[in-house]
Specification:
- The complex is a heterotrimer of chains A (309), B (487) and C (664).
- With 309 residues, chain A is mostly helical.
- Helix content of chain A is 75%, strand content 0%.
- Chain A has one domain (2-307).
- Chain B is mostly helical and 487 residues long.
- Chain B has one domain.
- Chain B has helices at 4-20, 25-52, 77-100, 114-133, 137-155, 161-179, 182-193, 206-223, 232-235, 241-250, 252-266, 272-292, 299-322, 326-357, 368-371, 373-386, 394-409, 418-442, 455-479; strands at 57-64, 68-75.
- In chain B, strand 1 (57-64) and strand 2 form a beta hairpin.
- In chain B, helix 1 (4-20) packs antiparallel against helix 2, helix 4 packs antiparallel against helix 5 and helix 12 packs antiparallel against helix 13 (299-322).
- Chain C has four domains: 1-196 and 237-261, no CATH class; 264-532, no CATH class; 569-622, no CATH class; 625-663, no CATH class.
- Chain C has 27 helices and four strands.
- In chain C, a hairpin with a 2-residue loop joins strand 1 and strand 2.
- Chain C is globular, with a radius of gyration of 29 Å.
- Classes of the chains: A mainly alpha (309), B mainly alpha (487), C mainly alpha (664).
- Chains in contact: A-C, B-C.
- The interface between A and C is large, with 76 and 68 residues.
Chain lengths: 309, 487, 664
Amino acid sequence: MMKTMSISVLGIIVGVVLVAILPPFLDGIARKVKARIQYRVGPPILQTYYDLQKLFGLPSLRPTENKWFRVAPYLALASAFSAAFLLPYGKWVPVKFSGDIVVFFYVLAMVSVAIIIGAFSTQNAHSNIGGHREMMMVLSVEPILGVALGIFAFKAGTLSLSAIPLKVPASFSTVLAYLLLIYAAYAESGFVPFDIAEAETEIAGGVLVEYSGRLLGVLEYAILAKRLVLLWLLSTFLTIPILRGIALTGVVGGIVVLAVQLILVLVAYPLIAALEATNARYRIDQAVALNTRIFLLSLVVLAVAAVGW
Amino acid sequence: MNSTIFLLSFLIPWLLGLIEFKLDKKKADIVMLISALSSLALTSYGLVLFLGNRGIYHLVYIHSQGLGEVFGFVVDTMSVLMAFIVSLTALLILLYAIDYMSSSNKLHPVTSGKGTFYGWMLILEGAVLGFVFSSSLLSFLVFAEVIAIATWGVIRYYKTPNARHAANKAFGFINLSMLFGLLLVVVFGLVKYHDTSLYALTQLDSHAKLWVFLGVMFTAITMSSQFPLYSWLPDSTEAPTPASAFTHSIGIVEAGLFMMVRTIQFMDGIPKTAYYVIAILVVITQVMSIFYYPLQKDAKRLLAYSTIAQVGIMYVALLGAMLGSAGGLQASVYQLFNHSLVKSLAFLVAGTFGFSFGTFDMKKIKGLRWILPGAAVGWFLALLGLAGVPPMGLFLSKANVIMTGTTTVRGAPWIEWVPILLVLVDATIFFLVAVLWLKSMLFGEPSYEKGKISPLMCAVLIVLMVVMTVSPFLTLHLTESIRFIGG
Amino acid sequence: MVIYLLELSLSLFVLGAISGLVVEYKSVMRLSSTFATLASLALIALIVEAYGHLPIKGELLGTPIMIDGLSLVFLAIIGVVGLADAIYTFNYMDKYEKLGKAWVFALAYNAFLASMVLLVTTSHLVWFVFWWEIMTFSAFVLVIWEEKDSLWAGAQYYITMHLTSTLPLLLAMAIGYSVVGSFDGMGFADIAAHIGTLSPGLVKLLYASFLLAFMAKSGMVPLHFWIPSAYASAPSNISTLLSGVMEKMAVYGLVRATFDILKPTVAFGYLVAILGVVTLVVGTLYALKQTNAKRLLAYHSVGQMGYIWLGVAIGITFMKNPDPTLAFIGTLGLAAGLFHALNHALFKGSLFLSAGAVEYAAGTQDLNKVSGLYKIMPWTGVFALLASLGISGVPLFNGFVSKWMIYEAGYYSKNFWFVLGAILALLISAVTLASFIKFYNSAFGGEPNELTSKAKEVPGSMLIGQGILSILCLVIGVFPVVALAIVTLPVGKGVITAGVLGLSFNSIYFSPVLLAIVLGVLFIAFLLFLPARAKETAKPWDCGSTLFPEETYRLRASDYYRPYEKRIGAFYAFGDFFGDLGTEVINRTIAAYVWIGKYFVRTAEIPRVTVENVDDLRDGVTLHLDDALIMPIVRFVKVVGIISKTAVVLVLIVAVAVLAALIW
């Protein structure tokens, strides 16, 4: 008993550590891949760590008295980590309760919300525009994510995030739900062409424009962590249904699953980076239009799922 | 049961009323007060005695071989309560009249002739008090005629051409209906049975019942100003406001209904034909008043149409009673009591418009709550009360009418639902009209100087508001003891 | 003891109601709100006292009283919101001192609260409707308080209520009476016992009547049109009661009527669910567009009522299901609906109070005009934030827990339509969040502008009022078990302990303590290990442009989410189409009336040629049918010239006839 306990605690710790250290590394990979595609040498893989280290060392400027400006980055980071804790690592889930999928959904949205609140707290036009674009992305993407998770929950008959991949049956609608999930995760992460809120070249960083020093570091870290969480969700949903048999058997099974999850993430990131490098940013209205259409499509998929296919 | 009390309660107003014609000013006021107060004292004493010793008492004063029961009393819950409310309302209205009928009235300044007004009013009061105790159709006829004459007297009081016309019209219409209705019935009863007692009604054969019923009904609905002879009532608002208040709340209009209730109460097994006749007339009345409400801009005329409809609702309740539901009788009488108080308040408030601004035109009155706050509250409560908003009693009584109505028509053809549903429609339309008028009259920039009403008038309004809110809860269970008597 | 406390509470309300006798404006307001506060405290004491001894039967003023679990939930709503609102009112009404009429306020305010207390405790249908009407009436008096825009809003409210709530209830009452046949027999249980004798058509009519009445009061689409203007133009303490408490009475009525008078049927459940889902979508999406603080809140009230109805609908549909799991889902749904009703009362009440505080301090409800109030009104800002998080359903706040239970019930029902409803509810929650970010940021975010820099924080009593509700939002959010103890009373916690899914009330509701710990620990850890060290201040970067005033860089409330609104423009167009349709129907009805009305009026006497509206008709002389028949004869007689004799002749005829009879 003690042994299984300690192993699961160990598994959880591994998961937490992964979430804590992986995001900048993945970003480093992405930067490298993008650079290679653009025939540049690119920064070293660990460059993002160096960036963050430097930012953490610098004090921040205050453009406003508003407390929210300072609180928001921490809130975003805490929310991203809380979301990460709801996901399974191998067969271990740090925080688990019935119906946690709804909590996951909300906590994930809270990352964006914290960023938006931070952006709105200053009287800077670029920052405000960025915040308001971010909100529109949330409003149009979250529905798709919600329906996709909804289809999984409906098919699996449970509202527990860690139990869904164990129970979800293979069917036509599930396949479509995977596609929806991939799209939603991609758009929600704010990769190009959906990096409309930051839009470095257009509105000078948008939501980030007024942030500097350590606060900027925390905020960027939160954004990277959120991307990892979404990607991890995706890889979990792909891995566990396939390795369902192994996942349930012992510690080794758990480690295997964890490894596969990790590999999947590491493989996916360069692919995403390639996509980013070869695409141009959408205008916000284009993005919202696309998302709305896909949302309507997702409702059709839900109906398909309800019919039983 | 000592019925001398009740006998006195109407004889005193008659006697003092006759004296009043010779008096004026303060003296008239004093005599009027004596009369109205003693009448109220007697009826309330009677009410207390009755409540301690309930039952149905039938007393015959004059009985002859040829004419049967000429003059007698039926003392039961209905008549005792009715008498009490008549004398209470009369007292309040007459108190109001003391200051209303004065030279400070902007619309109709009165300098002399107050005694004549009191005289007619007291005779009217006495006649109604006698009417409600009557035990035979013959005495109904006699008292109704006195009521008609007194009503004629009060309506033409201002002696303007319009007032004269309205008075003649009212008198003419009512007598016309008696000629072809109650009078025929009474003559028929005397000729054929040598008796017109209510207790004899149940022994008639069904053919005779139908004709007697229709005859009484024709007079009754005309007195209550239902279709087909209804227009005298709106025109009668030419009368001084206290007189209108009495006529509409507890005078001739309610007397007609009361006679109908008595007839149904005593006549057992009324043919269904009678039911349909009365149903059709009531439905037409209701539909008409729905169309008339929004067209009125004169406060008193609006109230007159509402009287027509409210009394119509009492008749709807009687429809249920005609199908054998005692609940119908109770609902009808309960509605009568509640209506009388709310309607007197409404008229007395409307009177203050004429008194302070010299107009009854609701279009001209704005910002009432700034210039006449007391009247604004009264008008608000009265109009909404008439529309059936609680805590004013008409809510409960209308609900009662509908509830008892559905009991009798459940399972009946849909057509029998029509009068009941019309009660709801009628209340709604009046409600719409009331809310829109209140919105435009009570608020906004005042259109007149700050008005002034005397403390006495104000006190009467306040007392009426309180009584109107409290009485429904007191009378609710009292009216439940009303039952069929005949058969 | 419980009945005694009820009497105590009501007597305190009565004292409050008559405190207008004191005359002086401020004293009346202080006195009446003190009594209302005490009365609300007595109610809370009643809840504590009654808990565990249910149901309690008794009599009050000759009317039968029954307090059961359902009553207790709504008594809690009235007690808590009433308490906060009464304290808030202590100072708030000073704003309206010019209008006078303090005694009217004292009377209507206390009557309003007292009528709702009686409404949820009576067990007699007639008295239920009676108190319902008193509630509607006193609410009307309070809504029109400002006597400007509120007049039209109030009239619209009252007329709508009369048509769509009073009439159906009277009809329902009548049908109920027809089965029991006596006034005293109109208890809920008596009617339920006899309902079998009704024909199927009348039973349907009964369902329809109740449904319509409660739809209108809770503002279900399409009967929600009166809500925004009424809530926006009423004084804020009244809006709080309207939205926080009065709307809930409709939920009470719905549950009471469906479970205790009628039977919960599947078809009826679907109907309620559809109404709920449509309402939550329409209400919230319309709210997103609003820039007036109180209109925004009002539309959200509509939306949130949709959630409550959806929860109740799950209860109606599944509670009587033979499958124990589904029956449990039904129980869960009903409990969730009631829980959300309680939560909505808390956060929406608080939000309206905050909006009132903003209006009190800055003098406007327009979110485009206010800005930077966090600096000037820090406490109001905090309370508004807590409540905003509550309504947005952010975890750790009360709205999340109840919404979450609704989603749970919807998903586990395994019924496509309810799953779809739950998903839509989840998504609309995101819209709610967006809307409240706008609400909070435009009022409290940014920098103070000309209008707001002159404002100052509202008096302490108002803050206490807001604080009570807002802090409860957080407390219930973290420890939902506090509220669940009450909201699960009506559904019988013990009836179904464990279903097939291993669900029970102990496991089914989200216990946020765990999440609170995780999130809180992380947050504090980050804050400690990476303190911001932001000491230096700098002005926001304005692209180097120094010519424009700072104000122009501000995002106004109307600028939020424009592209999104445009994208779903078809939805708004669809909604507006129905609005126009309604207006058109009303206009046509009036036109038809005028057309018929012309035949009732001598139009030739009207100076203008055309009669366009009812008012034109009023200038003419009313015509009567009987006049048309009889007056020609009268005129003929007049012309002949014996008018003065006619009366005499008539009397003579009567006398002769009587004499003739006598002689016979």
